[in-house]
Amino acid sequence: MKCFIVVGEQSADNHAAEVVKQLQLLDNNLEVRAWGGDSLRSAGVQLLRHINAYSSMGFWEVFKQVFQFKKLIRECYLDILDFNPDVVLLLDFGGFNLRIARLVKGDGKKVIYYIPPKIWAWGAWRAKKLKKYTDYILVTLPFEPKYFDKLGIYSTYVGNPVADQIRNYLSDSKETESRNNSRERTIVVLPGSRNQEVAHVLPFIRELVLLNPDLNFFISKSSVVDSAEFAAFNDLLNVELFEGCIYKMVRDAHVAITTSGTATLEVALLGIPQIVVYKTSNITYQIAKRLAKINFISLVNLIAGKKIVTELIQTELSVVNLNNEMHLLMSDSNEQKKISEGYSEILKLLGNKSAARNVAQKIYALGRS
């Protein structure tokens, strides 16, 4: 069987790689090509384009590169036609992947959308396109099927890949031991995996570090982010930059500062109190603010349907607010307990399905049909 995969950022690349591993167990003759990242490459997938070359975010950022964006869509489409796959697997990256779905479905290709656009948040007009240009819609948030049902769109909750990853990580007995007490004064910072979001958040983190010379800060540096964005931390003695898996650093931290995205759920499932931050260009924010239909931006609060963790968004993100929230989480046992109880609720809602296995089975069945 032949499968073509398109992802637009690092976490989706990780999820896609797990699906490929499960597909390899089902089909010894599996061939996979992709537009993706290092995780897919490590899983044995032939990459035709690396996400570094095309990943973008935000309305204004895409608008500024609209001609390049169209060129990339055309190039991806031609790569798919050249490979002639049995199934096209699309993950997230709605602005790009919905266009790919329309093009390849028009050529009679079978399309699975895994982690579809968050049309329950904004962009409900894309619902008809999603239904028209896909064979299966596989969702990873337990509340999504009910929303899609209201629109007359069938979707399947396959489980949550982040929950799967955390379960696998914690199954190692060495990682279930108590956290290192010597790091109780440690703050882990997860600023994101895209240049735009990192550039907007890191200046606030630097000021926070300067305000707290007695604390140790461990800052995650994604391999797909320009190293120059982190240069301002080179002269700070209480900062250490790290790359790779964030789980060990998060488990050893007292508090996490997390840019909105998949990392918010990872931190929650690892059981660490966190502050969610987000800032983008003013144009992008103003557009999103008018289109969004949600009260929260973090997966933690969205899944729970209520506030579990504090979100500091756009103008609310200031060094004063960030510093106050950080010290509250470090010192207030009642706040820590409330967050911990909220995390437990989220874990129950997610369940224990194996997302990668379920997605692989859908692909395999569709590819052979």
Give an account of the 3D structure.
It is a single chain. 47% of the residues lie in helices and 16% in strands. It contains 16 helices and 13 strands. The strands form 2 sheets. A 7-stranded parallel β-sheet has the order 3-2-1-4-5-6-7, sandwiched between helices. The longest helix is centred in the N-terminal third of the chain and has 18 residues, at 66-83.
From the spread of the alpha carbons, the general shape counts as: globular
The percent of residues in helical segments reads 40-55%
How many angstroms separate the termini?
A: 11 Å
> Oligomeric status of the shown chains?
single chain
Mean pLDDT: 90
Task: Estimate the strand proportion.
Answer: 15-25%
Strand order, largest beta sheet? 3-2-1-4-5-6-7
The secondary-structure class comes to alpha/beta
Radius of gyration based on Cα positions: 20 Å
Low-confidence stretches: none
Record field, number of beta strands: 13
Q: Compute the number of helices.
A: 16
Question: What string, H for helix and E for strand, traces the elements in order?
Answer: EHEHEHHEHEHEHEHEHEEHEHEHHEHHH
Sheet bearing the most strands, described? Answer: 7 strands, parallel
List the topology elements.
Layout: E1 2-6, H1 10-26, E2 31-36, H2 38-42, E3 46-50, H3 59-64, H4 66-83, E4 87-91, H5 94-106, E5 110-114, H6 127-132, E6 136-139, H7 144-150, E7 156-157, H8 161-170, E8 186-190, H9 195-211, E9 216-220, E10 239-242, H10 247-251, E11 255-259, H11 262-269, E12 274-278, H12 282-291, H13 299-304, E13 310-313, H14 319-331, H15 333-350, H16 355-368
Parallel strand pairs: 1-2, 1-4, 2-3, 4-5, 5-6, 6-7, 8-9, 8-11, 9-10, 11-12, 12-13
Helix pairs in contact: 1-16, 4-5, 9-14
